[in-house]
Amino acid sequence: MSDIIYLSNVRLSFPHITEPQRTINEQTGKEKISFNAEFIMPVDHVGLQQFLKAYAALALDKWKDNASAVMGMIQNERRLRCFGRGEEKVNKKTFQPYDGYAGACYITAGRDTSPQLIAADGNPIDSANTMAYQATARTMYGGCYVNVAVKPWLQDNQYGRGVRCDLVAVQFAGNGEPFGAGATDVSGIFGAVATQAAQPAAPVAMPAAPFGAPAAPQQPPAGFGAPSMPPFMMGR
Q1: What angle do CA 81, 86, 90 make, to 5 degrees?
Q2: How confident is the model at residue 186, as a pLDDT?
Q3: Residue 109 has what pLDDT?
Q4: Other C-beta atoms within 10 Å of 51: how many?
Q5: What b/e sequence results for 206-217 when a residue is b if at least 16 CB atoms lie within 10 Å of its CB, and e otherwise?
Q6: What is the DSSP string of 49-68?
Q7: pLDDT value at 224 more than 80
Q8: What pLDDT shows up at residue 89?
Q9: Strand pairing category for 5-24 and 31-41
Q10: Widest pairwise Cα distance in the chain
Q11: Which domains does the chain have, with CATH numbers?
């Protein structure tokens, strides 16, 4: 368990916990499924310091004398790291940091299967118990506070070197102001609807037969049986 980092009382953002995020890999064209979220915390958060310490130890063990140089390259390229300062998370429409990010730091964690959810009593919720799992997940929204277990790991493959983070488990810790604009309340512009007694419908007169009385229906010629059923009616 020494490689697991516990982040206590951090804010949940962009949650994809039970419904995965689906993206297309630009290099392979394949769809990637990821259960992920971001966790916002103060710069001096104990869990963040533990995370950075664990990352440095992993880098030194893997890249040896080149660790400082590789970590410098990772630091200068945001897409290669799973953490950063909140000011880096800018809304492309407003050009301002997203709600809750300014002055803080964040860690992004994810996995290709849904993470473990922890109930309020500290016990894990069986993911096979779909109703309980979904009910717990619904309590977690962008802006609430959670406790989370994450596991940093190093990427070193054809896509480059980087630091990533597994999302191990999440526990709801408390309510917070939801991120983003809430639904606009426009109830004040509506009045009460006056109820009216239903009026009986006026009788509808039969239309006059065109050109006199209708002709008697013709009998089918001899040799015709029951009409064949149209193909689209078969099997109904």
Answers
A1: 95
A2: 45
A3: 98
A4: 25
A5: eeeeeeeeeeee
A6: HHHHHHHHHHHHHHHGGGHH
A7: no
A8: 95
A9: antiparallel
A10: 105
A11: 5-174 (2.40.50.140)
